[in-house]
Design goal:
With 619 residues, this protein is an alpha/beta fold. It has helices at residues 24-29, 89-108, 124-132, 137-154, 168-183, 246-255, 263-274, 305-310, 312-315, 339-352, 384-391, 393-403, 414-436, 472-482, 484-493, 497-518, 528-552, 557-566, and strands at residues 74-77, 81-82, 113-120, 161-164, 187-197, 202-204, 209-213, 219-223, 231-240, 260-261, 280-281, 283-285, 294-295, 298-303, 330-335, 360-364, 367-369, 372-373, 410-412. The protein contains 18 helices and 19 strands. The chain is elongated. Bound molecules: 5'-O-[(L-methionyl)-sulphamoyl]adenosine (MSP). The site of 5'-O-[(L-methionyl)-sulphamoyl]adenosine has 19 residues, from β2, α2, α8 and β15.
Length: 619
């Protein structure tokens, strides 16, 4: 049973009032004011009568980021990674999804964008991991944080900000945020007891637990979802009035059906909000948890690591001073295991602090390995450094983004990487470039001309008989390539990057068929009419390759760069706004015609060897 009470918590919270009437700068520098009412409010979460005070009406609306339009700003974020162990491919997947979205935005020439990531360094989990490793938390965090930094850099994740929760600027933001919660009346002190799961850093209700035996064969309780052992914990904590936010959260979601994607996760959150929403313990006794940020003006308590971690999304944009330039134009990419923290706790905390919820939460599922959950104890953790070494940066990025489907768990095995990457990048894409730029069919090594007489513009491609040399199939194929950029953009917008890649591959295969169908190597270059048709076939093929190279930049940046350089596409011609496909077919001029092709005639993507396994434990 938990204490709950409907508070007169008005919608103005969600609409974004500002918690602090005082100057943010002055308040951040000065010690935050005492708890409402001066002394701690004695309360019990389970059973006791609630002494709730209404949340205070909040004043001053925050500055908002430009909401719409082409120049609109956007902060994309990855979760910040626990600094208790090295990165694995699940972490990398979260980061790659965000990176691809960020890069695609840049390609579209959208407004200013940032991609934030970092490490989550406080909490019992880290404190215990450091003790087990015979080191101190700061030392452990330093080492692991730099491993994450390296892994993300190595994987070409184009982050603009890397936040460590141990940094002073972040800690200052957390203290300020706590002050805003407290000043808004959203916190109270109570005694809390329940089953705490350290690996998940949260209390779990009985309904999410099951009986088990520990390593010594003693009965114990474990989390149903993760199998991690839980421990009974009873202590004095500060509680956050989460229960008061049930209706505002529901309203927020009803008003914003795109707020959580893919849709099944949106429904999952709505379902959670139908159930009981108990208040949330947001601090731990300092005697148990020293590795964290002390509660302002109560040094006996440490701020709950999830509150601390979530605030990274604000500290990165300069909270409490300059965040209004970005907030709430924010999209969080998160794994399904941390959905409740992002889609229930975080928006409620934000509302309570007088800020609007993030614009979107983009959720992905998990990678399993040979059908099993990835775990250190099973020894099946996939090391991103080994994978990149084995499959190259682009090969591995391509695999994860092409095979990862956010709606459902995906299974990893090394053979699948080799198969997908060889067939789609090395053979289909690389082969197409190789064949269409071969000196045997294009000895001048230039971007050849398009001939309208060979490929005349038609209103209905089924009526092409006797009009040129292109067939109805050819018209159909160029139409599908012409619609590709928009299709890809829609899939990126809908957080379905795998579908965008599927469409691109389909077009690459169609282009190979087009090329094969017309056997340009059989055409007689001495015959002017044949030469015109030969040039047109190559021109169309290179135009297609230019589209694929441009669209693939967010996913395989190095390979795309190589491809575009070979096609002599200048850096300033690689954006989506300058991507005019087959201009000559539409009677316009094509700036590429006659251009000397790039000098690198090497293989675009080398076939991968049958793999050495990347499944290994790392330390
Ligand atoms: N520190 C928290 C996040 C705080 S954000 C304010 C955390 N860290 S984590 O290191 O455990 O996880 C980071 C991300 O990796 C999460 O999005 C999580 O879902 C993702 N993955 C962890 N294991 C995964 C797989 N096996 N597969 C795919 N992604 C997974 O949670």
């Amino acid at each position: 049973m938990q204490a709950r009470q409907r508070l007169p918590l008005a919608q103005h919270l969600y609409n974004g009032a500002c918690a602090a009437a005082r100057s943010p700068l002055a308040a951040a520098a000065a010690p935050p004011p005492a708890l409402p009412g001066g002394s701690p409010l004695p309360r019990r979460l389970y059973g006791g009568a609630a002494m709730l005070r209404p949340l205070r009406r909040l004043s001053r609306p925050p500055r908002r980021a430009a909401a719409t339009g082409p120049g609109r700003r956007l902060l994309l974020s990855t979760p910040i990674f626990y600094a208790n162990g090295p990165p694995h491919i699940g972490h990398l997947y979260s980061a790659l999804l965000a990176d691809a979205l960020h890069r695609h935005r840049r390609l579209r020439g959208a407004g200013p964008g940032r991609l934030s990531t970092g490490t989550d360094e406080h909490g019992l989990k880290i404190q215990q991991a450091a003790a087990a490793a015979g080191t101190s938390p700061p030392e452990l965090c330093e080492r692991v944080s730099s491993l994450f930094h390296q892994a993300l850099t190595h994987a070409a994740v184009s982050f603009t900000d890397f936040t460590r929760t141990s940094e002073p600027r972040h800690q200052r933001a957390v203290r300020y945020f706590w002050g805003a919660l407290r000043d808004g009346g959203a916190l109270y002190k109570g005694s809390y007891e329940g089953w705490y799961c350290t690996p998940e850093e949260c209390f779990l209700p009985e309904s999410q637990l099951t009986e088990h035996r520990d390593a010594q064969g003693r009965p114990c309780k474990v989390s149903l979802e993760t199998g991690h052992q839980v421990h009974w914990t009873k202590e004095e904590n500060y509680m956050f009035r989460l229960s008061a936010f049930q209706d505002p959260l529901r309203k927020w979601l009803r008003d914003n059906p795109q707020a959580i994607s893919p849709h099944p996760f949106y429904q999952r959150v709505l379902h959670w909000l139908e159930e009981d929403l108990p208040d949330l313990s947001v601090s731990r006794e300092r005697s148990r948890l020293q590795w964290g940020i002390p509660v302002p003006s109560d040094s006996t308590q440490t701020i709950y690591v999830w509150v601390d971690a979530l605030v990274n999304y604000l500290s990165v944009v300069g909270y409490p001073e300059t965040h209004g330039e970005w907030w709430p134009a924010v999209h969080h990419v998160v794994g399904k295991d941390i959905l409740k923290f992002h889609a229930v706790y975080w928006p409620a905390l934000l509302m309570a602090a007088g800020l609007a919820p993030p614009e979107r939460i983009l959720v992905h599922s998990h990678w399993t390995v040979h059908g099993q959950k990835m775990s250190k104890s099973l020894g099946n953790v996939i090391d991103p450094f080994a994978c990149i070494g084995q499959y190259t940066v682009d090969g591995f990025r391509y695999f994860l983004l092409r095979q990862g489907v956010p709606e459902r768990d995906c299974d990893y095995y090394d053979e699948k990487v080799v198969k997908v990457v060889n067939s789609e990048l090395a053979d289909a894409l690389g082969g197409l470039l190789n064949r269409s730029t071969a000196l045997s069919i294009n000895p001048s090594n230039t971007y050849p001309c398009f001939s309208e007489s060979c490929f005349p513009k038609v209103l209905d491609y089924r009526e092409t008989k006797g009009m040129g040399r292109a067939s109805a199939e050819d018209y159909e194929f160029v139409a599908s390539v012409a619609s590709l950029p928009l299709q890809v953009a829609n899939y990126f917008e809908g957080f379905q990057i795998y579908k965008a890649l599927e469409c691109i591959v389909l077009c690459v295969r169609q282009t190979n068929s087009f090329f094969q169908r017309h056997r340009p190597w059989k055409l007689n270059r001495k015959d002017p009419a044949e030469q015109l048709w030969l040039d047109t076939i190559i021109h169309v093929t290179l135009e297609c390759l230019r589209v694929y190279g441009t669209l693939l930049q967010p996913v395989i940046p190095h390979t795309a760069d190589r491809l575009l350089s070979r096609l002599a596409v200048e850096p300033e011609e690689r954006g989506l706004s300058s991507l005019t496909f087959l201009a000559r077919y539409n009677g316009k001029s094509c700036p590429f015609e006659g251009r000397q092709l790039g000098p690198d005639t090497g293989i675009l993507f080398h076939r991968l060897e049958k793999s050495r396994h990347c499944t290994d434990l790392q330390t």
